[in-house]
DNA sequence: ACCGCAGTCGAACGATCGTTCGGTCGGCCG
DNA sequence: CGGCCGACCGAACGATCGTTCGACTGCGGT
């Protein structure tokens, strides 16, 4: 990476002595790391970047953290715990397939927003290390659960007939997951976002019911 | 990157002598590079990886290309040319806002599929170098054009009323762009894919018209 | 007053990165 | 046939990477 860095958004280290024992608990460092990982990309982020964002030197940073990959793993675990937690909720296991699917989608939006940095990290993995491949596998499990629910709802006639439920499931997951690429807390309230995603996914953008210029390619 | 690499999908170099002048034209090397960039991620990809995928040594590779960033730039230009080409098509500049928007979305799917590796690269940029930031700026222009069209269509009453057109535009772009995360040529025909994305975006997944359990958060 | 220890740091480790250089090989043109 | 030149390669460059090490500091407990 020869090019210059984007304007560094972090890194101010209080003037001289850092006597205050700021108690760097592991979870807060994971949060800092996840944020910087997302700004620069995991591979482009150096331990120097991370320690500077935490306000200490690289060697001090290692006193609190096992290493770069351990930070990644911790962040990914937090994301996956949030996502799989949804599948255990009562509303995700009872009712019609469509009702369950719709609940999961809405909750998935909430978890995405609540754990934004960690989920973002999860959705950008490439699988270069064993840790990344493990997380990718878990993520595939989650997507498979949704795909299975879409298939059920489609078989039950609860979804518009016609095309491939597997493709629909991919598009649905893609729609929800794309949030991490632009959503930032504050601008749009979470419940509004949930309503928008739900409407877009299940009712579409069009004004009238079935009309449009409904042509086929 | 201390971890092991994912199973290397390329790199066989014909046994000994490579006397055949395989004519490594620049554009084919860009294609190879884009593919490997997407597999490993740009930063995690070494010039050794690239040259091995091309079937020559690292130093030979430099005889054909200017450097890593030049390869990235070439691939991104190809992606951006394809996308911006859509905006110049007649059907993208005449007709109602909704008709124009719908045409652009369908064509965008086709370009995404036709230039899959290059567009994928574009959609994963982090902005660490000047080249990346330039491409990100161009991409923002494209998204802004779509957002503006969504706003027009919404103001003309062609879209379901209620919520934020800016959010709708983000969701629409996110839905289309998410294709690069799973679509691979062969499985699903392109025209089917176009129809699916169009239907999902504008009509939604639901079976009946406005019904569902249409609750709000 | 003393000690232990968590916290911090500068310096350095080997590895790998993108890139460059000097030189060899062999087909092609004159 | 002689020489040129594009294709190719091994070796090495300085820079930066993740990580380790030894030493210093100052607070809390005894």
TrEMBL record, chains A, B:
Name the DNA-binding stretches: 46-65
Where does the HTH tetR-type domain start and stop, copy by copy? 23-83
Which keywords are on file for this protein? DNA-binding, Transcription, Transcription regulation
What SUPFAM superfamilies does UniProt report for this protein, alphabetically?
Homeodomain-like, Tetracyclin repressor-like, C-terminal domain
Annotated stretches, region: Disordered: 1-25
DNA-binding recorded as keyword: yes
Q: Which InterPro entries match?
A: Homeodomain-like_sf, HTH-type_TetR-like_transc_reg, HTH_TetR, KstR2_TetR_C, Tet_transcr_reg_TetR-rel_C_sf
Query: What PROSITE patterns does UniProt report for this protein, alphabetically?
Result: HTH_TETR_2 (PS50977)
One Pfam family from the record: TetR_C_24
Listed name of the protein = TetR/AcrR family transcriptional regulator
The organism's lineage?
A: Bacteria, Bacillati, Actinomycetota, Actinomycetes, Pseudonocardiales
């Amino acid at each position: 990476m020869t090019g210059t860095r984007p304007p560094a958004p972090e890194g101010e280290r209080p003037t001289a002595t850092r006597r205050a024992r700021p108690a760097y608990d592991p979870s807060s460092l994971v949060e800092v790391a996840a944020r910087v990982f997302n700004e620069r990309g995991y591979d482009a982020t150096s331990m120097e970047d991370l320690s500077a964002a935490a306000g200490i030197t690289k060697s001090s940073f290692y006193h609190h953290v096992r290493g770069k990959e351990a930070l990644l793993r911790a962040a990914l675990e937090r994301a996956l715990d949030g996502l799989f937690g949804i599948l255990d909720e009562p509303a995700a296991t009872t009712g019609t397939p469509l009702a369950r699917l719709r609940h999961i989608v809405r909750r998935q939006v909430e978890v995405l927003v609540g754990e934004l940095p960690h989920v973002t990290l999860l959705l950008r993995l490439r699988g270069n290390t064993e840790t990344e491949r493990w997380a990718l596998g878990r993520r595939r499990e989650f997507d498979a659960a949704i795909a299975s629910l879409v298939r059920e709802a489609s078989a039950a006639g609860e979804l518009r007939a016609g095309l491939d439920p597997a493709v629909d499931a991919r598009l649905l997951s893609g729609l929800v997951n794309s949030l991490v690429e632009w959503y930032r807390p504050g601008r749009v309230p979470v419940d509004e976002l949930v309503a928008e995603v739900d409407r877009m996914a299940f009712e579409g953008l069009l004004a009238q019911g079935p009309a449009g210029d409904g042509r086929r390619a």
